[in-house]
């Protein structure tokens, strides 16, 4: 099998659209040169999905890079899957404006997947009872843009099981994706169960635990045994469970290396050894602190 992602390396969303299992995360990719360089390397390595957000402040650079580079690889807009996210400052009554701004920055007629980035609202304390209402108002705005075809799929990021249940009990259009931190030290069993119950695709970010997991002795041992890098093993652990991943890098060699996930398989024993690292450890934000 080719070392680059195959056309079948995808998951079916509840909208009927296929989403690639592998995408390039663009968090901390700043400036047109860095974004252009990373997108070029990613397209060359077979990536067909790109994940941005309003708070990353690189939507315009990503849109420009794709317009310039897609023809180089004989690709069109329809060949790539673009994700972006509503910033916490736009949660609530500003959600429609925020989503339209993302479309404008990316210079796209539509975004393939648009997520509410965070269950809370910028400027409000954790316990502020306006947060649930703002989440609902944001979701209604995304539903409207989805109905118009401007957002092909809508979902959420960093939601807890309680946030997910709140949403699915009140929404008109079900979320297509939940994007959260996921790696062997944070297996998210309850969240994955909730997603399975409601037909929501569970997607991972921070698969490498902010780089700390690549030096874990148990991870490096598995990697050595299958002649792969620790990063490849950690990413493969997720995609082998049909969990899409979004490794981020500005290094062309690393971007190419991270794409080599579909020409090897981890044994059941290795999968279990990695999953046994689960200790509920979060390297990123803790959304359970948001009501």
UniProtKB/TrEMBL annotation:
Q: Where is this site: Lowers pKa of active site Tyr?
A: 85
- The identity of this protein, by name, is Putative prostaglandin F synthase-like
**Keywords, ordered alphabetically:** Oxidoreductase
One GO term in the molecular function aspect is:
oxidoreductase activity, acting on the CH-OH group of donors, NAD or NADP as acceptor
InterPro entries registered for this protein in UniProt: AKR (IPR020471), Aldo/ket_reductase_CS (IPR018170), NAD(P)_OxRdtase_dom_sf (IPR036812), NADP_OxRdtase_dom (IPR023210)
Q: What PANTHER family does the entry give? A: 2,5-DIKETO-D-GLUCONIC ACID REDUCTASE (PTHR43827), GLYOXAL REDUCTASE-LIKE (PTHR43827:SF11)
Transmembrane ranges? none
Q: Which SUPFAM superfamilies match?
A: NAD(P)-linked oxidoreductase
- List ligand-binding residues for substrate: 117
Domain (NADP-dependent oxidoreductase) ranges: 22-277
Quote the Gene3D superfamilies the UniProt record gives. NADP-dependent oxidoreductase domain (3.20.20.100)
The record's active-site residues are 56 (proton donor)
What organism is the protein native to? Answer: Scophthalmus maximus (Turbot)
A Pfam match? Aldo_ket_red
Q: Write out the similarity annotation.
A: Belongs to the aldo/keto reductase family.
Oxidoreductase as UniProt keyword: yes
């Amino acid at each position: 099998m080719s070392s680059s992602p195959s056309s079948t390396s995808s998951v079916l969303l509840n909208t009927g659209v296929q989403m690639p299992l592998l995408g390039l995360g663009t968090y901390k990719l700043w400036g047109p040169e860095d974004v252009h360089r990373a997108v070029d390397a990613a397209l060359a390595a077979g990536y067909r999905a790109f994940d941005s957000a309003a708070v990353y402040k690189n939507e315009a650079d990503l849109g420009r890079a794709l317009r310039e580079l897609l023809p180089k690889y004989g690709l069109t807009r329809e060949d790539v899957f673009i994700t972006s996210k509503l910033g916490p400052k736009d949660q609530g009554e500003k959600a429609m404006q925020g989503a339209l701004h993302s479309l404008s920055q990316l210079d796209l007629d539509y975004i393939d997947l648009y997520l509410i980035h965070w269950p809370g609202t910028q400027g409000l304390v954790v316990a502020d009872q306006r947060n649930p209402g703002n989440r609902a108002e944001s979701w209604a705005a995304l539903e409207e843009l989805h109905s118009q075809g401007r957002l092909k799929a809508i979902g959420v990021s960093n939601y807890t099981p309680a946030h997910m249940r709140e949403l699915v009990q009140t929404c008109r259009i079900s979320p297509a994706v939940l994007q959260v931190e996921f790696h062997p030290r944070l297996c998210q069993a309850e969240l994955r169960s909730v997603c399975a119950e409601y037909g929501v695709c569970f997607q991972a970010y921070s698969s490498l635990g902010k780089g700390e997991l690549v030096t874990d002795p148990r991870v490096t041992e598995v990697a050595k045994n299958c002649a792969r890098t620790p990063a490849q093993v950690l990413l493969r652990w997720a995609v082998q469970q049909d969990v899409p991943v979004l490794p981020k890098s500005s290094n062309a060699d690393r971007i190419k290396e991270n794409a080599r996930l579909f020409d090897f398989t981890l044994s059941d024993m290795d999968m279990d050894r990695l999953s046994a690292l689960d200790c509920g450890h979060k390297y990123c934000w803790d959304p359970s602190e948001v009501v």
